[in-house]
Amino acid sequence: MDLSGKSYKSFVERQEALKKQYSPEQASKQHVKGKLTAWERIGLLFDKGTFEEIDAFVTPASTPVEFGKIDRKYGDGVIVGHGKVNGRLVFAYAQDFTIMGGSLGLVHSRKITKVQEMALKMGAPIIGMLDSGGARIQEGVASLSGYASIFHNIIQSSGIIPQISVIMGPCAGGAVYSPALTDFVFMVSHTSYMFVTGPNVVKEVLNEDVTSEGLGGAEVHARKSGVAQMIYDDEENTILALKKFLSYLPSNNVENPPSVSDDGAIPNFNERLRDIVPDDPNKAYDVRDIINQVVDRNTFFETAELFGASLVTGFARLRGRSIGIVANQPKVLAGVLDIDSSVKGARFIRFCDAFNIPIITFEDVPGFLPGVDQEHAGIIRHGAKLLFAYSEATVPKITIILRKAYGGAFIVMNSKFLGGDFNYAWPSAEIAVMGPDGAVAILYRKELAESKNPVELKKELVKKYRDRIANPFIADESGYIDEVIDPALTRQKIISALDALSNKWVKVPARKHGNMPL
């Protein structure tokens, strides 16, 4: 090629024009808001020198001039492409708020749908970094149709490739359904927000004053709505966490989860596990202490920590292999299952099942949360989601009953006859229709009422109930669990069970899909 020729000169001029779009002045506007530019985000996410941009020189669609000027810059406000994250292929798109507020028009949406379709075809995860003013008003129905195409592609890829959204600025109106449809949502505190209708509409319709942060900030969605699973203080830490998070996931639904070498820091026999659960069944403890003593050192990555906190979910490694963890949390509401924790658990279990990630359940559950509010809000329907998800899952499923396992909650938490592959119990386990206090109050109502010393009588009867009914050895001898194990051997038992389940295969019925109680 003649490097001095006209065609090469045009090539160079276009390259220079593209670079000039991303000026220091535009970058400083983002930095003042505590945000990075789209290119800075791309640079942090991908391994150095591996990102390849696609459709860098496309320009926006034409619109009638009387409805506002369109910025004719290259790229139409979104950067799309592929590269390596921790050495593995990943596709991504990053909306650029410095170009027309990152608004979504026809060309913008086509760039995103193109990279979505490529990710599905290549069997690679896709990351969406959202920072947009929403649909481009000047383009009318074309913008709305663009969103519809994006949503459709997310749904088509669901359960086939991991799809993760990272909210790094505004995400409002119909745009919010894009992250809501993906597998996991990351948000940045104080600089990102999501809502269907903004503060101005809320003020106009309901006469309520609320800020963007108060209506749909990261804390709101991580703690109250459950839309976001992970939040971090700044974009740098958000992206670093995202990179770590990706390391637990396979690239697609036909791959096994990635493995790393085990440093051997966690012993297979661990006496510390014998001392974590208190002797007093009414005393709380942090189930994370058990998780961290069982899994490989420093590998537990908790998801949705602030939402439905009576249930802990997250990813970890066991001898370097990725696993999913579901655990009742006695530290919060005594570990009961409520609406939020049931939905959270069901969603997490279905993700693990879709991507071949074994599920380890640590059980200490006194039941479902009682009350008018829970019943009227649909605890029956929402609790059934968790039940459905566990029973439907065909990946290896192992349960360890740590302490309480009462009533319907015992059934729901991956019980043996719900489809649990290996179900173990610690000697501290109590497996029964209800807790000893409640059971004795019902069974011996008359005797307690007539007793001269009801407190002592109840204490005696509670002990008898624990020994004769709730005792885990009874469940073991009847085959309702597989074994009562020494807590110190928990890691070894799980590793052995996972080895036995390495070739697990389940024939599922021929059907389009089940009808989960949504």
Question: What this model shows, in words?
Answer:
- This protein is an alpha/beta fold and 518 residues long.
- The protein has two domains: 14-246, 2-enoyl-CoA Hydratase, Chain A, domain 1 (Alpha-Beta Complex), CATH 3.90.226.10; 271-435 and 470-500, 2-enoyl-CoA Hydratase, Chain A, domain 1 (Alpha-Beta Complex), CATH 3.90.226.
- The protein is built from 20 helices and 17 strands.
- The strands form three sheets. Strands 10, 11, 12, 13, 14, 15, 16 and 17 form an eight-stranded mixed sheet that branches.
- A hairpin with a 2-residue loop joins strand 2 and strand 3 (88-95).
- The chain is elongated.
- 43% of the residues are buried.
- The model has no long low-confidence stretch (mean pLDDT 92).
CATH topology of the largest domain: 2-enoyl-CoA Hydratase, Chain A, domain 1
- Low-pLDDT parts are none
Strand content: 15-25%
- Assembly context of the chains: single chain
CATH H-level homologous superfamily name of the largest domain:
2-enoyl-CoA Hydratase, Chain A, domain 1
Quick recap:
The chain has 518 residues and is α/β, with parallel strands linked by helices.
Task: Spell out the key features of this protein.
518 residues, alpha/beta, 2-enoyl-CoA Hydratase, Chain A, domain 1, 2 domains, eight-stranded mixed beta sheet, seven-stranded mixed beta sheet, 20 helices, 17 strands
Question: What layout of secondary structure does this protein have?
Answer:
Layout: H1 6-21, H2 24-32, H3 38-45, E1 52-54, E2 78-85, E3 88-95, H4 106-122, E4 126-130, H5 141-157, E5 163-167, E6 170-172, H6 177-181, E7 184-188, E8 193-195, H7 199-206, H8 212-216, H9 218-225, E9 230-232, H10 235-246, H11 287-294, E10 301-303, E11 311-318, E12 321-328, H12 339-354, E13 359-365, H13 372-377, H14 379-392, E14 397-406, H15 407-412, E15 422-425, E16 430-432, H16 436-443, H17 445-450, H18 454-468, H19 472-477, E17 483-484, H20 490-500
Parallel strand pairs: 3-4, 4-5, 5-7, 6-8, 7-9, 12-13, 13-14, 14-15, 14-16, 15-17
Antiparallel strand pairs: 1-2, 2-3, 10-11, 11-12
